[in-house]
Design a protein that fits this description.
The chain is mostly beta strands. Helices cover 7% and strands 19% of the residues. The radius of gyration is 17 Å and the shape is elongated.
Length: 59
């Protein structure tokens, strides 16, 4: 079911992923028409290494 217009669709599009601290998260779907109103999800695997590791030599 589309999160925006609440219509059941045969071709859902993933428009979001909700993570939770306890229990499983869930995926948010939209129909193809409403999916255009949502920004693309960032690719978490493309985060630059500079942001994942602290600078060397500093504590």
């Amino acid at each position: 079911m589309c999160v925006r217009c609440e219509v059941t669709t045969d071709t859902p599009v993933v428009v979001g992923i909700v993570h939770q601290n306890s229990g499983p998260g869930f995926v948010v779907y939209a129909c193809r028409t409403c999916a255009a109103h949502y920004p693309p999800e960032p690719d978490v695997l493309s985060v630059p290494l500079a942001y994942t590791h602290p600078p060397s030599g500093k504590a």
